[in-house]
Fold each of these.
Amino acid sequence: MSIRAGALALVGVMATGFAGTTFAAEEPPSDVPVAKDLTAVIALQGLPCGKVVRAIQQGEDDYLASCEDGNRYRVFVNADGRVIVEKAD
């Protein structure tokens, strides 16, 4: 999968909008794709993660992802429509 395809998949998931604000791999199956998509986007950026075990929606198209290896990333879509992954403190 290319970076562009992964980014488009994330944008598609983010654009659908979710009623809840917290997503985790342990949640019902309907919420699992968000964690999987965030895992893919982080991996496509070449950043260490393993898999996303918790994702908190901070705003529209803006997530805080916690990885199984302890890393945390902010994943969001910028004003130009690009998916950005930043290491969170």
Amino acid sequence: MDRFSRSRRTLSAVHGWLSLAAVITLLCLTLGFSPHASAQTAPKVHRKVIQMVEPEYPTILKNGHFEGQVRLDATVLPNGSVTKVEVRGGNPMLSQYAQQAVMKWKYAPGPDKTVEEVVFVFNPGSR
């Protein structure tokens, strides 16, 4: 094999690797800059709670040191009443009391139905 053939094969291999690198770079750029990913969303506006009811925290659960955070999503109608409360996380023993309380809440009226996040912290020392 002469020197010219070996140089040509090396250049061909380098050209192949550069082409592959260029294709991978373009693919990454295309996926990374999709219009959906770069679109800005408006910040969520939270509705004001007009009437709030604290959840019951039974003594037996306090004494048993059942504690922690309960996260809920409350579906609120335009008139401000809560129609549904879904548990997003937390102790099931405590979440039932949080759900019952939020169902009694009243929010400020708004133009549309919204879903509001509610978080309760159950701590035997603070209640």
Amino acid sequence: MIGYILKRIGLAFITLVLLSMLVFGASTILPGDVGRSVLGPFATQESVDALNEQLGTNRPIVEQYVDWAGGLLKGDLGTSLARQVPAWTLIEPALVNSFKLALVAFLICVPFSILVGIIAALRYGRATDKGITTLSMSFSAMPEFVSGIFLILVFAVWLGWLPVTAQADEGASLPTQFEYLLLPAFTLTLVLLGYIARITRASMIEAMESDYARTAHLKGLPPSVVIRRHLLRNALLPTIAVVAVQIGYLVGGLVIVEVLFNYQGIGSLTYEAARQKDLPLLTAGVLIVGIVYLVVTLVADLLYALLNPRIRFGSLE
């Protein structure tokens, strides 16, 4: 186990290094410059050039990356070029906000999606199964901004049950924050419903057709006991890997949802950094998201191996 974990950590380190280099390289094709973003559209070109010279953004991209990576080795994520504050002071509250939204969405999406997948499997081949499969995959194929706008119109504008924005006032109570996060959480539930429900349904059907399920039925066990003690324990194992991937998405892949609902999370912060061509903040944000994603997937792999005695770490490598 220790060797497997060390190998995964080494691969994760290489992945993060390549990811940071890719972000820096791709930023060269982004339009605009930091000086213009800071000074505004009415500043003279001489002022913009002077600020870019002061910030060092007119240096070669390789030189900028080496300076940023050297600071990172000392625990410094760099300084935001557009706001002139340490990148971590901007990333920390945004990351906390993203974790809050991810937690609410997780608590709603995962149990509901698993339940839907189980119901579809138990009604395999019937109208209920076909209806659930069609609707869940249709929702997953729908772009986030479409489902988000639809939910805003229905629950915020027409019915007035929920707030339009996801950003509660500073110092708001936990129930109030939860209320503000419901609409984006529902949007994410619609997006992820099809993926989780489909895997759960397929795994559940496979478990229902297994020999141990037939044996349990032949012993005269009630269907509820067979489902709870035998089918779910085995059917939910493949769902762990899918859920882990979705957790990484819930933390760092919410750019559209956070911008749509005016939520100050890591996704919207990274988007603003890219729009302003703020390389240190952009790369630091992507790096933090990458770390979260890799940690979550590593924990999921270990949990899957521990729960399934048929899996050996050697085979996972």
